[in-house]
Each structure stands twice: as structure tokens, then as C-alpha cells.
Amino acid sequence: MKKQDVDDYLQEGIYGGRQTKPGERKQYLGTLRERIVLVLTKGQVMQEAGVEELKEKMKEHKDAQLLLNGEVSYRFRKPYRNIADQYDIHHTTISNHETDTDAGAILTVGYAIEKEDIYLETKEEPREVNRENKGVIGFLKSLFKSSE
Predict the structure, then answer these.
(1) What is the domain count for the chain?
(2) Rounded to a whole number, what is the distance in angstroms from the first to the last CA of the chain?
(3) Coil, helix or strand for 94?
């Protein structure tokens, strides 16, 4: 094993210990993708989407932990905290202003489960796309056509 020198101690003191996959940890509120059971986006948390799915996953994984994004207002996080309390799941709020992530709530475990689909699929109505009217010019054309 390599002997640490003063520079190593200083680097660790300033920046913290080295982590595996730091980009992945920033995206997933400090955890790794391989440990995630379910991810809800900020928008889904604000719309209280995925409550039933989260309850089901909490029943399956009694040893899970709920990570909530601190950038989401407390009033939107509160129902998810209550659900975690109901199922005796530890929850914590992660506030890291240096990272930008779309994750609003993450149910995670302390070991690798390698789940393929971790994001909650929302059922949105498909948008009709008019291929010939793209961009600003297409938008302006549609405005003038509708006024005729």
C-alpha cells in the first residue's frame, strides 16, 4: 500500500475523500445508479405523482432510504416524508447547490440491485407534431393562418 504524504492529506482535507463515479453521484443525490429502486423527477414530486408506486417499492424494500432534493419546496416533499415515516423508511433531504439534477426523490438501497428501469413512467398524451412548421417561422405562419 502506498504511504500517504502531506499533499495527499491536504487534498483530502480540502476536497474530501475520493469517490467512485462522482458525476453519477451528483446526478442521483449522492448515491449510485446501481443502488436505485425508483427515481421521481422534481416535476413529478411537485405534482405528487408516483405516490402509489413509491409505496409499493417501500413495501418490497424495507431496508431502503428515501433521498429528497432540497431544491424542491418543503410542502412538495412533505407527503413523501410522511409515506416514508408510515413504512419506517429512513429519509433525508439533500441540498447541494453546486449540482444541477432533475431528480426530486430517489428510493435507494445500500447494495447493488442493477434495476434497468428506475424512472417512473408518466402517462402523457402524445403531442402532435407538424413536421413542415418547425421553429419560429412555422409558429409565425400558424399565427397568420389562424387569423385568416
Answers:
(1) 1
(2) 79
(3) strand
